[in-house]
Amino acid sequence: MKVMYIDTSSSFLYFGIAxxxxxxxxxxxxxxxxxxxxxxxxxxxxxxxxxxxxxxIDKIIVVDGPGSFTGIRIGITIAKVYAYSLNKKITTIxxxxxxxxxxxxxDYLVPMLDARRGxxxxxxxxxxxxxxxxxxxxxxxxxKEELKKYDxxxxxxxxxxxxxxxxxxxxxxxxxxITKFKDKKSINxxxxxxxxxxxxxxxxxxx
Length: 207
Description:
Blueprint: E1 2-7, E2 12-19, E3 22-30, H1 35-50, E4 59-63, H2 69-86, E5 89-93, H3 95-102, E6 108-116, E7 119-126, E8 131-139, H4 140-147, E9 153-156, E10 166-168, H5 174-181, H6 201-206
Parallel strand pairs: 1-4, 4-5, 6-9, 9-10
Antiparallel strand pairs: 1-2, 2-3, 6-7, 7-8
Helix pairs in contact: 1-2
């Protein structure tokens, strides 16, 4: 079984292809504003490096958010086009789930993404990936108060967030993520949509 993973929810492209619990290829590359231009270029290179054709993929796992509104749409669009045009199975996971799963050496794992204006996207996961706090768009000060309830906390982030806990940067364990979620229930490609956890700026103004 060949599984493709794609995450463009930040300024990075995280991409991988695995077959039978073996990672064939992975991409971990930062693009910033060039993500929309370069993501497909490096994905095509990765397929060639792995000697795999898109039609050979059995399932696609795509991160649906939270994170960069533009970035999330890029990954979801790529994944949906592959899934729909090639009739492939597809499922979604949270960027926060992927972050927690890749750094599991504390009792409580707190993936965190800067959402600006004093807010973060975050969640609190136990080591077995069950949630103590489900993914949420939350004021950082409120989250700090919530974290006082827990011992042995690890914050996982690539952002410059002012919080007094042990921190680790995020670099996805793509094989581990694929292994964990490859059997997650598939959904219709048309049902794959961004999960921003908050309104877009345009929606906020309209509201």
